[in-house]
Structure formats: structure tokens, C-alpha cells
Design a protein that fits this description.
CATH topology: TIM Barrel
Strand content: 5-15%
Distance between the termini: 17 Å
Shape: globular
CATH superfamily: Metal-dependent hydrolases
CATH architecture: Alpha-Beta Barrel
Strand order of the largest sheet: 3-5-6-7-8-9-10-11
Helix content: 40-55%
Radius of gyration: 19 Å
Number of strands: 12
Order of helices and strands: EEEEHEHEHHEHEHEHEHEEHHH
CATH class: Alpha Beta
Low-confidence stretches: none
Mean pLDDT: 96
Largest sheet: 8 strands, parallel
Structural class: alpha/beta
């Protein structure tokens, strides 16, 4: 079993993680945004806002740790993560690994071999990211839809090599609520234990049979886009999560929101005039981007209304992340 986990401020005992949000983001910047003259980041102001939001999570909702699985090419800035962590008192875990083919995978790394990509991942876990000395605490894997591409399979194979070499767990992105069981098969082919993998964004699929396939495969399942209503109503997420709990799978569920505090430039999709106006209205009120507290103020009460107990919530937010990073096998 693992006893320590890398955070951006240094390794901590796995038992010190406490209440953990397993899939959130502080800052995102899609490749190319740096060339937009209108895309400007006020770094001190952003850091101050992020600190305020994390302090609220810690003081009001008891969150001790925050996993930011930002892919390497999506503006990952570990020095900024470290400053935010130090000022907020919240542990932040960063990751190594790239995004999926449609929206990521830089040309330079597409040309590298599996071994070369794995070497980068291992270096970022064991020696540090660039010259920062900050070490990744997990590996990020991402696949698109409707199928996993051959290029994505190469990066996934590299993640398997790095996982076996370092022992850190894998956190995944799935697109459009598909690909989870396929990721599991590729991890198994790569010699990675199912319990070392968190299959992300499964709440993007409304079919309970899909969720059952993932948990039966022995991995953790991510209901980690809570509150992103343009992708799925939260009522559907709550119904499906409550069903997993009733069926005895609370020990495999991770809850999070995939939210961000800052985004460089425009979104990677076109935003309509009405949606933009609403974002502009909410931003000066501190409500855009939406706060991380939503899961506690809005979604968990929806789960309680469906019979999910506070003990179940504690299992999903406190115990499951600890067990995941500790590499413990799932309870029978």
C-alpha cells in the first residue's frame, strides 16, 4: 500500500487527505489562447479569487484536498497551484498526462514513442515538473467519442507503463459518457489493476447499465461533472448515483464537479449571446465561474432526498479518495 501522496507543496501522508474533491480545476487555457490579444490573465487577482473559493470549501464544507487533473497542454501551471494551496490551506494534487485527440495531444508528443511519453510521465512523478520540483500525484488519461482512437491508445499505453513504474493512480476523462469499459480493458491489457483507476465523467451517460458495467469492472466511477447542466440534468445524475448507492456500490463512487475558477480567453465552443450575457452578469457577483460549493449546497440535498445518507456521503468524499491513493483493494 502507498503511504504518501504527492501534492504541489510536497508529499503528505495519505491519511491527511481528508475530505477530497477528486476532479476539479483551478485554471484552464486551451492551446492557442496565448495568441489571442484579448485573452489576458490578471494573475494576482485570479490567485486571490481561487484562494477565497478554496478557503470557503475548507472552512464551510470541510474540504481538505483538491485534485486538479489538468492535462499538460491545457494551461497546467503548477507554480500557481502551489501558491494557491499555500495561501488557502487546501492540499492540491496535480497530475501528469495529456488530453484527448480532438482537443489536445500536441504534435510534438504525437510523434513520440510509448516509451518516450512514459518517460516524461515518470519524470514528472518522481523528479518534478520542469524545473519546479513539484511532483505529480496521479496520471491523467483522456479519450474521445464515440471510440478511443489509435493515437489515444498510445498515450494510454504510456500511462500504464508509468503507473506500473511509479505506483500512482490513474484518473480519466471520458467524452460524451462513453468509453469507460473500453478504458478499463486497455488498462487491464497494460497490467494496471482496476482499483488503481478512476473512470471519469461517467455521469455524462444517463443509462444505469453503463454505470453498472464500470463498477462491475472493479474501478472507481466518477460522478464528477455535477452541476454542468448543459450536459446532463442533475436530477438524472442524482437518480443514478442514488441507485448505485442502493445497489451497494458507494465504496466505488467519487463525487466532484469538473469546475474551474479561471479560463484564459474564450471557451473552446461558441457561446451564444444570451449565455454570454448571463456569464457577464454573474461574474462581478463572484458567481461565474460557478463556485465549487454547489455540490454541497445543491446536489447533496438532492441525494439526501433520494435516501443517500450522510454516512454514504462521507464514504464517497472522505474514505474512497484515501483508499484510492493508498492503493488499497476495494472492500468486498
Amino acid at each position: 500500500m502507498a503511504t504518501m501522496v504527492n501534492t504541489v507543496t510536497g508529499p503528505i501522508p495519505v491519511g491527511a487527505l481528508g475530505r477530497t474533491l477528486m476532479h476539479e480545476h483551478l485554471f484552464i487555457a486551451f492551446a492557442g489562447a496565448e495568441y489571442d490579444p484579448l485573452a489576458v490573465l490578471d494573475r494576482p487577482a485570479f490567485i486571490a479569487e481561487a484562494v477565497t473559493r478554496l478557503v470557503e470549501l475548507r472552512e464551510v464544507h470541510g474540504v481538505r484536498s483538491f485534485v486538479d487533473p489538468c492535462p499538460i497542454e491545457l494551461g497546467r501551471d503548477v507554480t500557481m497551484m502551489k501558491e494557491i494551496s499555500e495561501k488557502s490551506g487546501v492540499h492540491v494534487v496535480c497530475t501528469t498526462g495529456f488530453y484527448f485527440e480532438e482537443l489536445g495531444l500536441p504534435p510534438y508528443w504525437r510523434a513520440r514513442t510509448v516509451d518516450e511519453i512514459a518517460e516524461l510521465y515518470v519524470r514528472e512523478i518522481t523528479q518534478g515538473i520542469g524545473s519546479t520540483g513539484i511532483k505529480a500525484g496521479a496520471i491523467k488519461v483522456a479519450t474521445g467519442a464515440p471510440d478511443i482512437t489509435e493515437l489515444e491508445k498510445k498515450f494510454l499505453a504510456a500511462a500504464c507503463l508509468a503507473q506500473r513504474a511509479t505506483g500512482v493512480p490513474i484518473i480519466t476523462h471520458t467524452q460524451d459518457g462513453v468509453g469507460g469499459p473500453e478504458q478499463q480493458r486497455l488498462f487491464a491489457d497494460g497490467g494496471v489493476g482496476a482499483h488503481r483507476c478512476l473512470i471519469g465523467h461517467c455521469c455524462g451517460n444517463a443509462d444505469p447499465a453503463y454505470h453498472r458495467r464500470v463498477v462491475d469492472g472493479g474501478s472507481y466511477i466518477g460522478f464528477d461533472r455535477i452541476g454542468i447542466l448543459r450536459l446532463m440534468p442533475d436530477e438524472t445524475r442524482a437518480d443514478n448515483l442514488a441507485k448505485l448507492v442502493r445497489d451497494g456500490f458507494a465504496k466505488q463512487v467519487m463525487m466532484s464537479q469538473d469546475r474551474h475558477c479561471g479560463w484564459l480567453g474564450k471557451y473552446q465552443r461558441q457561446v451564444g449571446a444570451a449565455e454570454q450575457a448571463e456569464m457577464d452578469r454573474l461574474r462581478p457577483l463572484g458567481k461565474w465561474p460557478p463556485p465549487y460549493s454547489y455540490m454541497f449546497t445543491d446536489f447533496i440535498p438532492m441525494l439526501h432526498a433520494r435516501g443517500v445518507t450522510q454516512a454514504d456521503i462521507a464514504l464517497m468524499l472522505d474514505e474512497n479518495p484515501r483508499r484510492f491513493f493508498a492503493a488499497e483493494t476495494l472492500p468486498g
